[in-house]
Amino acid sequence: MLTRHRVKQTDALEVRLAAEAKRLREQAKSLPPGAARDEMLRRARQAETGSQMSEWLRSPGLQPPE
What we know:
The chain is mostly helical.
C-alpha cells in the first residue's frame, strides 16, 4: 500500500503566495520582453490576488450569522 507523505506548512497561505509573487517578479526582471516574461508577470499577479483574497476571507469582518 502506498503512503502519502504530507508536508506540514509552517507559513500561512497568504505569506507563501506573496513570497511566490515576489520571486516571480524578480525572475521576470531578468527576462527580455516577450511571452515568457508576460506569463511570469501574469502568474505573479495571480499569486498576489490569491493572497489578498485569502486575507479577505480570513478577516474578522466576515463572521457567520448568529
